[in-house]
Please model this.
Amino acid sequence: MTKKNIDQIKLISERKKPFEACGFILKKNKKYLTVECENVSDNQETNFEISNKEYLFAFKNYEIISIFHSHVLGDETFSKEDLGISDELDIPMIVYSLKTNNINFYNPSKKRHNKINSFFQKEKAVVV
Ligand SMILES: [Zn+2]
Model:
């Protein structure tokens, strides 16, 4: 994952305001892609939900590096639901708060995602 991915998450999140944006950081052929998904939640101002169809497509065709979403009204603190999704799927979670402009990162399985961890340790300026 590169800083470009983080910048793209910020752009996508700004565009989606006042609704929460969501999507994936995907990897294929050593390239990292930022892919926006449709937020299918009934309450898009405060929640996000990615359809099973989009999860399945990502699982089948790419390595899923992270799920991302934005918080429009809240800060970058993860909700219990956010952490639950990340733990259940064993996929790291990124959240961007439009209120504080901060990015937060959660890693449910440090062993499996060493590379991502080391990236974020190097790029401390990006992750607050
Ligand atoms: Zn959230």
In short: DSSP finds four helices and five strands in the chain.
